[in-house]
Amino acid sequence: MTQTQKIIIDTDPGQDDAVAILLALASPELDVLAVTAVAGNVPLVLTHTNARKICELAGRRDVPVYAGCDRPLARDLVTAEYIHGVSGLDGISLPEPQMPLSEGDGVDVIINHVMNEPAGTVSLCVLGPLTNIATALRRAPQIADRVKQIVLMGGAYFEVGNVTPAAEFNIYVDPEAAQAVFQSGIRIVVLPLDVTHKALTTPARVARFREMAGGAENRARLGRGQPSIGEVVASWIDFFERFDVEKYGAEGAPLHDPCVIAYLLAPELFKGREVNVEIEVDSPLTRGMTVADWWRVTGREANALFLRDVDADAFFDLLVTRIGRL
Ligand code: RIB
Ligand code: CA
């Protein structure tokens, strides 16, 4: 068995974050050291609550969930209830979490794990705005030499923006944080809209979640008369895809955040290019744009692996196979 990868999931659940967290918790190759919540899709109090609901759904109350930053570095918080619902996790309603929020600042937890684990062994998987990561870099710049990699969902180039014509939501919410991360020198792997818009939740794919047999946790749920994990996942997708299907007219919504975890598990499913990525922070018109030098015309040094393609069928096979083990 390959050595387990130590990861911290930094997240703003969010139904797609939720599917990503389930995928991680269902995959023995990944040692989830912590889940750190950040304000994004919905305010922090909801993102950390949702993160605990998701861990409990997976039967993983052992995974510590911490609260990180409740607002961007330098901007007012912009949220996305119009996509994710008021709770941020609309779909089948899950009970209030029994597991407590873990004591401690999520940013300090990121710093402590990176400093205490052997250098180069902890990957930061970022599914929301980069506020927690940038704050950790400000508080402890020395972590930049010790983080193995940052694998993040964010940005867009050929696919352009989803919250403005120029910007993707995670980068738009906190462009200063994104700029600090992309200038940190840390190994960065970007899963932008260019990739996630090729991982669409078609009806046939959603049906596969509903039909999942599931493992021990799922059987226990059914024994308690609760909806199966597959039904919960399908309800999340049904909820958040309604917006994207209407907007893009596609036969399904892009399943953004699970691409981050899938990359860790099966990088061969993705294709991209090492390029330079800079973040627009000044222009009101293009705030949060990821200026990816895909054609290498600037001479600026590459600072990220910018992914553009995914084997979507294999991606959904991985999702259903793994989550179907819970
Ligand atoms: O633009 C998509 C990203 O914004 C996803 O991470 C989604 O959860 C929202 O945070
Ligand atoms: Ca997210």
What do these coordinates show?
The chain is of the alpha/beta class and 326 residues long. It has a single domain, classed as Inosine-uridine Nucleoside N-ribohydrolase, Chain A (Alpha-Beta Complex). 37% of the residues lie in helices and 16% in strands. It contains 13 helices and ten strands. The protein has helices at residues 15-25, 44-57, 81-84, 106-116, 131-139, 169-173, 175-182, 193-196, 203-210, 216-223, 229-248, 258-265, 312-323, and strands spanning 5-11, 30-37, 65-67, 122-126, 147-153, 188-191, 270-275, 277-279, 290-292, 304-310. The strands form two sheets. It has an eight-stranded mixed sheet, with helices on both faces. Strands 8-9 form a two-stranded antiparallel sheet. Helix 5 (131-139) packs across helix 7 and helix 9 (203-210) runs antiparallel to helix 11. The longest helix is centred in the last third of the chain and has 20 residues, at 229-248. The mean pLDDT is 96. The site of calcium ion (CA) has 7 residues, from loops.
**What is the H level of CATH, i.e. the homologous superfamily?**
Ribonucleoside hydrolase-like
Work out the strand percent: 15-25%
Give the number of helices.
Answer: 13
Identify the bound ligands.
alpha-D-ribofuranose, calcium ion
Looking across the biggest beta sheet, what order are the strands in?
A: 3-2-1-4-5-6-10-7
Round the mean pLDDT to the nearest integer and report it.
96
- How many structural domains? 1
- Radius of gyration, whole Å: 18 Å
